[in-house]
Structure prediction request, 152 residues.
Amino acid sequence: MKSEPSEVSVDDALAAPKSTVAWTGVRNYQARNFMRDGMRVGDGVLFYHSSCAEPGIVGIARVASTAYADPTQFDAKSPYFDPKSQAEAPRWELVDVQVVEKTRNLTLAELRASADLQELTVLKKGSRLSITPVEPKHWRLILKKLGAHTQL
DNA sequence: GCCAACGTTGGC
DNA sequence: GCCAACGTTGGC
Prediction:
């Protein structure tokens, strides 16, 4: 899951109550569907910093809730406000994400240089989605490269 | 700031 | 349903 550190960094998430943040602001249907249909409480998450000096995976997290309506879509003052979304039929949903471990920055350059990660969705050409699935084999490889203590 | 590679919108 | 125009993402 990508986050711009200027918005919410892994340190911001760690500093939040229970190291948990609501993953607000996803405004892409495919990414929303991954959260709504593809995630279960306890699933592992790779916390990725994007649009910054050194993009890369900076932490391990877990899905901490099932999907629910993203409140920012109804907040006229929020940059994520969606005037077309109706309270009875919210367009946008989110999950809570709990950081389990802050890791070193496994940089995008390092990911791209890894022969065994070439099929990772987020590395594919044209991949812009802020949320992409990770195959179990890639998950294991990445945790190893991160030197993670966590086993999820 | 540039720009490739998307996704969305809306006229027809 | 088509598709041009526009908007966004995100690395560089």
About this structure: The longest helix of chain A spans residues 136-146.
